[in-house]
Amino acid sequence: MKIFSGISNGWAAETEATDGGIWKNTIAAASHALETVALVEHGVGMTLKLQRKVRALRERLRTTQAELDRYRDMHAYAMEALRQTESVVPQDTSQLRAEGEALQMRHRAYKLLVEHYARAGIPIDLAVFARQRRRVLQHILFQQRRGVAVAQISVDDIAFLLR
Question: What Rg do the C-alpha atoms of the chain give, in angstroms?
Answer without folding.
Answer: 52
